[in-house]
Amino acid sequence: MTATALRPAWARLPVEVRDLVENRLGARIRAAVGQDGGFTPGVAARAELADGSRAFVKAIEADDELADQYRNEARCAALLGPAVPAPRLRFTVEAYGWVVLAFDDVAGRHPDLRSRTERAAVSATLTRLATLLTPTPVPDLPTAEAVLAPLVTAWRQYAAQGPPDDLDPWAVRHLDRLAVLESGWAAAVAGDTLLHLDLRADNMLLTPAGEVVVVDWACASRGAAWVDLAILLVSAEGVDADRVIRTHPLSREVPAAAIDAFVCALAGCFARESRGPALPRSPYLRDFQAAIARHSLTWLIRRTGWR
Q: Please, which pLDDT band fits residue 4 given cuts at 50, 70 and 90?
């Protein structure tokens, strides 16, 4: 995936923070390679240590508006358990004005969902996650409904206030129907599974052994087990999303109307978010959201059959 955030280099961290990380890791950092994917503007680096081990370190200033996402991720990661296909949290600390998380580094690359073999590995990981994380092992998590509610009101807003001039003509024609369909999403996603809620190919790593590990649990919440699969599919170019959702163990028993409502809600969310003001710290985010908006709307058109 194209870089979406402007991340400071490892060397830009205060020396006190870098020294603290080395002390907690137990070895000097020989090299730190910055990672430029993702959407938050914090430091992200794969560190090679003098003792031959490796770690993944991420950090953000403690007063940054996104710092709570790092704190949430640390809390969640600490409770996932060793069987969960996610990186082990080595430590988290807040000091010298920074929030720092250090994980075991996972060797691998982002899976290609167009590959049948790699898609099968992703599918297996999602099934495994749902098994291990139901009921959620993290107490007091917000529900998916609570997290998403402020974001998934676009069709109803456009129906009430008028759509943007450049909205897709199909969406304009069916705006009232979309508003009604969108309104049913909340009941559809209720459940007691720990969800990632931001699942994309760039938040997964395919290891040399062919296993998929899920990273970046900053948006973790509680809801229905199939929700992460749907979120993944709205950004999965080159994949027959309908076939996947119809045959996957997590979703094949889910009523089509529930899936329609959620896909509708996500399509509206990305349609509106992509039209937001540019974000200097994530200069490519709006383009990425626009691509998901187009892809999810195409899927929704196919699912509804509306002309």
A: low
- The CA distance from 260 to 137, in Å, is 29
Distance separating alpha carbons of residues 48 and 50, to the nearest angstrom: 7
What predicted TM-score, i.e. pTM, was given to this entire model? 0.94
Cβ-contact 303, 263 below 8 angstroms: yes
Tokens 């590990």 belong to residue: 213
Q: What are 10's two structure tokens? A: 């490892």
Please give the helix or strand (H or E) that residue 170 lies within, else none.
Answer: helix 169-173
CA-to-CA distance for 115 and 96, rounded, in angstroms? 45
How far is Cα 257 from Cα 29, in angstroms, rounded to an integer? 52
Can you tell me the distance from the alpha carbon of 220 to that of 84, in angstroms, rounded to the nearest whole number? 14
Tell me the per-residue pLDDT of 264-293, one tens digit each, with 9 for 90 and over: 999 999 999 999 999 888 888 999 999 999
